[in-house]
Amino acid sequence: MLQTNASTAQQIAQAAVAFEHRQTGHVPESATVILSENTLVVTLHGSLSPAEKALAKTPAGAAQVQDFHRQLFTSSSESLRQEIKRITGVEVREATAEVETTTGTVVHVFTSGTMVQVFLLGRSLPAETWNGSGLYDQS
């Protein structure tokens, strides 16, 4: 799935979309990747299924969706962490993902289906190794 001529950001976006698809069976609509010093942010747009969006409309359902995605990411993110290391050559020290169900909450995953994944790398990447916008659009 990864193209050899794709930028580092594009390769990470593609890896994150593939990871989400493998874990949930739902393909996000698009992905955006941003790097600032040693913090890597992956935003997956349209990552919640229609059933999850419907469930998240109630407080109890939103809590279920949040808990499900937290547990899923915690238990299975090692493969994505390793893929990021393969692409960048830098170890991922920390990783987290969240689901946002109400306005004003700390955002990692939005009820609209947008997921933000934040990875704290072991060190900064040289600017010359980071190229491109990192935008990957499935549509």
At a glance:
The chain is of the alpha+beta class. The chain is 37% helix and 21% strand. It is built from 4 helices and 5 strands.
What would you note in describing this structure?
The chain is of the alpha+beta class. 37% of the residues lie in helices and 21% in strands. It contains four helices and five strands; from the N terminus they run H-E-E-H-H-H-E-E-E. The chain has a five-stranded antiparallel beta sheet. The chain is globular. The two termini are 16 Å apart.
Helix coverage percent of residues? 25-40%
Low-confidence stretches: 102-113
Sequence of secondary-structure elements: HEEHHHEEE
Please summarize the sheet with the most strands: 5 strands, antiparallel
- How much of the residues is beta strand, in percent? 15-25%
Radius of gyration: 15 Å
Assign the structural class, choosing from mainly alpha, mainly beta, alpha/beta, alpha+beta, or little secondary structure: alpha+beta
Q: What is the subunit arrangement here?
A: single chain
Number of strands: 5
Number of alpha- plus pi-helical segments? 4
Mean pLDDT: 76
Q: Assign an overall shape.
A: globular
**What is the CA-CA span between the terminal residues?**
16 Å
Strand order of the largest sheet: 3-4-2-1-5
Secondary-structure topology with pairs:
Blueprint: H1 8-24, E1 30-36, E2 39-45, H2 50-55, H3 59-76, H4 78-88, E3 92-97, E4 115-121, E5 136-137
Helix pairs in contact: 1-4
Label this structure with key terms.
globular; 139 residues; 5 strands
